[in-house]
Amino acid sequence: MRILGLDYGSRTVGVAVSDPLMLTAQAVETITRKEENKLRRTLARLEVLAKEYEVSEIVLGLPKNMNNTIGDRAEKTMTFGAMVERRTGLKVVYWDERMTTISAERVLMETGIRREHRKDVIDQIAAVFILQGYLDSRNECRRNG
Questions:
Q1: What's the confidence (pLDDT) of residue 140?
Q2: Cβ neighbours of residue 83 under 8 Å, at least 6 residues apart?
Q3: Main-chain dihedrals φ then ψ at residue 51, nearest 5 degrees
Q4: Gap between the Cα atoms of 76 and 39, Å rounded
Q5: Per-domain residue ranges for the chain?
Q6: Which residue among 59, 95, 113, 118 sits deepest, i.e. has the most Cβ atoms within 10 Å of its Cβ?
Q7: How, if at all, do strands 12-18 and 2-8 pair?
Q8: In DSSP terms, which residues pair with 6 in a beta bridge?
Q9: Do residues 109 and 117 lie in contact, with contact meaning Cβ atoms separated by under 8 Å?
């Protein structure tokens, strides 16, 4: 079994998946849509990916405000998470994603990826950071448990 990591945005969803041992996260793809509220194809694609990778749970980045409050973007993310749960039948865990996109941008800049190509992978890298943070926390709890 694996865990799927998602970075939900207004027009894209970055997708990452764990290895079977649930130690590391790898980028999978970026799902794009023309309009923010057009989610049917996005949800269908996530359902296919969940089955293809034999996913047991989904981690969805929650964009909290810097003061730890829930704003409009986080509310939309939670609504999306509820849709994903209904569509896939899998538990969705929310993971604080503050600063993941900034970190992903920094990594892409440091690796020399040109600005025009960064937008193609930024959401995937952010999904990797979200999922890796969750995996590390989960594995740390097991070690100390």
A1: 74
A2: 39, 43
A3: -70, -45
A4: 12
A5: 2-19+34-119+129-144
A6: 59
A7: antiparallel
A8: 15, 60
A9: no
Can you read off the two tokens belonging to residue 80?
A: 């999306």
DSSP alpha helix (H) spans, 1-93: 40-52, 72-88
The CA angle 74-142-101, to the nearest 5 degrees, is 30
Dump pLDDT digits (tens) for 28-68: 999 999 887 789 999 999 999 999 999 999 999 998 877 87
Per-residue pLDDT tens over the stretch 92-135:
999 988 666 666 667 766 776 677 666 777 788 889 999 999 99
Alpha-carbon distance values, 65 to 7, 82, 132 (Å)? 16, 20, 21
74-99: average pLDDT: 93
| CA 44 to chain CA mean position, Å | 16
Q: Which fold has domain 2-19+34-119+129-144?
A: Nucleotidyltransferase; domain 5 (3.30.420)
